[in-house]
Amino acid sequence: MTLGNRTETKSAPAVLTPFDSRHLPGALNLSQEMRWPYRLEDWAFAAEVGAGFALERAGEVIGTAMYWAYGADFASVGMIIVTGAEQGAGHGARLFGALLDRTHGRNVLLNSTEEGLALYRRNGFSAYGTVCQHQGQLAMAAVPDMPPDIRRAGVADLAAIQAFDHRAMGLPRGPMIAALAEVGSVYVIDRGGEVAGYAIARRFGRGHVIGPVAAESDADARRLTLAQLAALQGQFVRIDVQEAHGLGAFLEGFGLACVGKVTSMVKGQRPVSVGAARIYALANQSFG
């Protein structure tokens, strides 16, 4: 009887459907199978600020793919997963094709593992950078004094933080930044009453993630990151940084080792930052 049920399930069609809240438990199961550290709350947040697809067979979620739109011209894609038992049947390509159809006409960003590079290159993506995932249990002495130009952000700072992020990222993602600030702790550099950098830390996965971190110099990025680290002593911390900006050695000094790298890719035009503002750490590898 059990074998018959399995056969019937396997022969049922795989149905592509818009991702909604009913898919959250199944999506969590997929990420746990892949040993991704997502919590149910992390999936719920990603779905709330974005959109995507679930692939179902007989009511079971066997695949996911998500995207996040930034203004009229850009989007990022990620969280593309197919359960191991269903891999090799073209489901990944089907999910990715649905994302490309939905984001058609936009410049599309993603971060790829080594295994995904060939698929993305076949679909017109090109590499432009490397992101290092640093993480570990944070054992450090708290910073005795906060630098005078770094302070906690308030509600009144949100518009300035969003504007700074737009310059640093080269694309508008105001609603995403507002959602991250709502659930996280935010520090800003206040330079003569103007926001000259910011960093957000929030609960994620095994502990906390720091990101985005946006600043006008490497030194400012380190100081903002240190402000967040000082509040996370003894916690598990993750931060995904642009390798080109050289924060790796600084993070490793706090025991946050680089445990993996992904390749940043774009289909279309890569966003260009404005002025000195730069993104040093990502919100996560899917959001950018």
Automatic annotation (TrEMBL):
Superkingdom classification of source: Bacteria
Molecular function in Gene Ontology: acyltransferase activity, transferring groups other than amino-acyl groups; thiosulfate-cyanide sulfurtransferase activity
InterPro entries the record matches: Acyl/Acetyltrans_Enzymes, Acyl_CoA_acyltransferase, GNAT_dom, Thiosulphate_STrfase_CS, YitH/HolE_GNAT
Record keywords: Plasmid
CDD domains: NAT_SF
Residues annotated as domain N-acetyltransferase: 14-147
Translocase as UniProt keyword: no
Pfam families linked: Acetyltransf_18 (PF18014), Acetyltransf_7 (PF13508)
ATP-binding is among the record's keywords: no
PANTHER family, A to Z: BLL4206 PROTEIN, SLL0310 PROTEIN
Protein name in UniProt: GNAT family N-acetyltransferase
